[in-house]
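FAQ
Q: What does a multi-component entry look like?
A: The components come first, one per line:
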Amino acid sequence: MIVFLLSVIIIVASGFAALVTRRSNSLSTFLGVGGVCAGSLIGLIPTFNVLIHGSRLSLHLPWHFAWGSFFVEIDPLSSFFLIPVFGVSILTAVYGAGYLQHYRQTHLLGVHWFFFNLLVAGMAMVAVAGNGVLFLISWEVMSLAPFFLVTFHSDQSKVQHAGWVYLVATHLGAIFLLVFFLLMGVNSGSMDFDHFNPSGYHHLSLLFLLAVIGFGSKSGFIPFHVWLPEAHPAAPSHVSALMSGVMIKMGIYGLFRSLVLLGVPSVGWGYVFIGIGLISGIAGVTFALAQHDLKRLLAYHSVENIGIISIGIGIGMLGLSWDNPVLVVMGMGGALLHVLNHSLFKSLLFLGAGSVQHASGTLEIEHMGGLLKRMPITGMTFLVGAAAICGLPPLNGFISEFLIYQGSVYGSMFLEGATVGAMPAVIAGLALIGGLAAICFTKAFGIVFLGTARREKGVSVRESRLSMKIPMLILSALCLLCGLLGADILKTAAPVLNMVTMNRFLDAIPLELIKAANSLRSVTWVFAGLILILTGLIFFRKWLLSKRYVQEGVTWDCGYIRPTSRMQYTASSFVQPVTGFFRNILQTRNIVSPPHGLFPTKVSLTTKTPDVFEKKFYSPLFEGTKRILFGLRWIQQGRIQLYIAYIVITLIILLIWKVR
Amino acid sequence: MNNWIDLLIILLILSNFVMLGSSRLAVCIRTLAIQGILLGILPLMIDRQDLVLHTTLVSIGALIIKGIVFPWLLFKVLRRIGIRREIEPFVGYVPSLFIGLAGLIVSLYIGSKLDFPAPESVADVIPLSLFSILAGLFLLTTRKKALSMVMGYLVLENGIYAFGSVVLNKVPVIVELGVLLDALVAVFIMGIATYHINREFDHIDVNRLDNLKG
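Then the predicted structure of the entire assembly, as tokens:
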């Protein structure tokens, strides 16, 4: 445990060092990034130790704080989430060092690294906090630091707006968590997690709902997702990668943790998770389809993947309440694996998007094109990430979705009763999500990396520097590795699953895990065969072409003599059939100036897809609140006498009321 | 000796009315000085039977600070900023007097209801102190000049002191002296602040300072 605390201290201290040395950007970057790397590497030691041995490390110190105690514990659940926290932090920090080189003349990078390190340390502390107060403090550190990271380009009004949306959303979520922990603490007489005892509490479902809303707003469950598509595009790419890859997973961690605290779930809770998951998954991917901003698109995909994770948790909870270890292993196991996998491929994709933005100066998909030839590494790694997020074999996204599929297939085939309805819905929903995600990433990859440049600037694009390429290469290698070693990774989840199920299936879970791992392994063999055949085909093609004359032509030739880059599919035209199908949900606004006359000259089409939940729900809500509160503005006159008068009146009323 | 205490209380109440009803700042400061001297004497009157050292000490301290130092400081500020009277307060002087009367009634009511372990002889000090507190708060709320507000604060402080005098032999001397010192420092700071506000804004009307409001 001391080793772990040492790593957190190193991360925080190096953050402060970066802040102190902010006058020198190179020194502060070195200190900040170096601290994150060193601290995270040290932190990984106890993490793996706990995960492999299934043991616990804990430290309990008294603390002069109301209800607080400095109680930290690494149990298997924490360690499982700590791996992406430390691992992805190292990679994004290294990437960030290269990414921010561009801004070393204009920004104080030391300040940025200070908050970056705070974010990493906050996430690590959230994962190990064993006391409600300590948890909330760490949670706040983890939630506040990104505000300063998101507003890196604080001179842009769009970025300021994104920062505020993030701040409001995260605090609204935190209110629910505060109530959640207070109710738990009051009920059990202590804020330490190991003393929490919800059995005497009658409104368990209320606690459950508080946890779902509180943690769900961090994870991005629809309809609490509105901050994601605002904050991720605004933030520097390595920050979006860390936030989307890891930080929103801390919400999932919180949900797992509260499941452990709340005990055996009721059946309804499982359905709530499945319902939220289906809505988040389908709506997330649908909105992603209609986006033209690469990072906004990725942000909506985070919502989608959180939905898939939530479906997995829901299936696992149903298994838990029905005493069915198969469903638990498939559902929870799939969800846990997906947490790990998503943290890999989503950070990879955001880093790729950052490289693209760096090189071409824009995130607008419609302005890019043909980047694969100029940025081969970024392009190939992005392709790996895109295939992984679509759940294509042999990459890691496939195995976790495959497990969840298996769980729902098992549920619909071998169980009776209410599942009969829910499980096929899950299968259909997952299939829909997977298909739409595939379309969406075909669009994203195709428009950005294939074809020809749509703007003049596209011609001068260059590949990013080495410190940005290496993290992307490592992440894409990990995506492939996790895809091939899925079975072995799943086995390490046994202690975690035992914890989440409160050791109710001590014998059954390892058995079921081995079964699931075996089925995954057989899939892996198929992958291996597939890869072999593909490599064979590539060599066969090379051999065929080696003796012939090969000519390279323009992608979109269409038989014209002088094709221009405008004769390509645009992003919106590519997905138009699908977005048209979902137009009732998307509410896309088309601004068209159609062609007129025999020789039309100027024609334009602009499509805008604002977030329906923000437009139809949050905006009216906040506008209404603002109106009501503005009605109270007369109270605030800015006159000191009036404020004193308020105090006087209150005092007199209280005094008279007291002696009455 | 109850008559002496009653006399002091009546004089103090009247001085509060003077504070409420006078527009001339110089008169207000002089009234404040008288109030401070009367307050300094008050504890001595109450504790005549068992005149202990610390009561005397605090009383003399209060007499010097409230009766001499504060008025001197305030006169100094008054001379430096060169204004004579409080013009157009939020509530006029005659209404102020009536409101003061109402405040006195309220204080008497609360004082009669308040179950306070005090000797019979000093029971009337409680309504007085409540009235002083209310009057001070009223001055703070309705006067525009920063200097008048400082004086309102001092009247409020006097009320608290009068209340403390009832229980003086129960409060440690260090606390009592600390309160006096606090008030002294507060007046210093407000005097300096008032002077600087006057220099920056050419006036000390607090209600016109709200252009700094966001």
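Q: Is there any commentary attached?
A: Sometimes. For this entry: Chain A touches chain B through 16 residues (CB under 8 Å).
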